Amino acid sequence: MLLLGYVAQLLQSLKGVVRYEAPNLRNLADKVAAAGYYVVVPDFFHGDPYTPGEDVLVWLQSHGTDKGAADAKQVIKALKYKGISVVGAAGMCWGGKVVGELAKSDDLKAIVMMHPSRVTVEDIKEIKVPISILGAELDKQSPPALLKQFEKVLSTKPEVDSFVKIFEGVDHGWTLRYDIGNKEAVKQAEKAHHYMLKWLSKYVKC
């Protein structure tokens, strides 16, 4: 999870099921910080991230997104107490579901979901804040057909500004789980990062 903000504002970014100290996640945090935000990366997995080969359903029993949302609310509350009044969130994979839960209330000013996991049409119906959804053409967890359903639902909510984009030729996790030696993969990830920052700068600013 990344928390980003100015003195009077905060942007929160929740990671997917990867170690929070992962280099690409840290690099993304640095990139957002360079844009003028304060950035924090809490460990919502409490030192127990998902590892390849592990039964994801078993892992989720003790790492539910409901618990993640509850933890995030406590972090937001603490930061607001310290004077950081404007909060936004960006979530990848597991974090996409968490920021969606947070966006069902007025805790946030805007959210970005990147290759979200476990998000449903019913979740999208309850979104109350501006939302940008950046998806992957080859994503089996949130395939383009599902993202188009999200877009259709959002089109019926004129009070909620929204943006949905499907990136061609990329798979689930492309914004974080890329090989830094692969120029095309880096390019595609950076393109998504640009869209994320563009959306957040529109709503999470002084």
From TrEMBL:
InterPro entries: AB_hydrolase_fold, Dienelactn_hydro. It comes from the Eukaryota. Pfam families: DLH. Transmembrane segments: none annotated. GO terms for molecular function: hydrolase activity. Residues 22-203 form the Dienelactone hydrolase domain. This is Dienelactone hydrolase domain-containing protein. The lineage of its organism: Eukaryota, Viridiplantae, Streptophyta, Embryophyta, Tracheophyta.
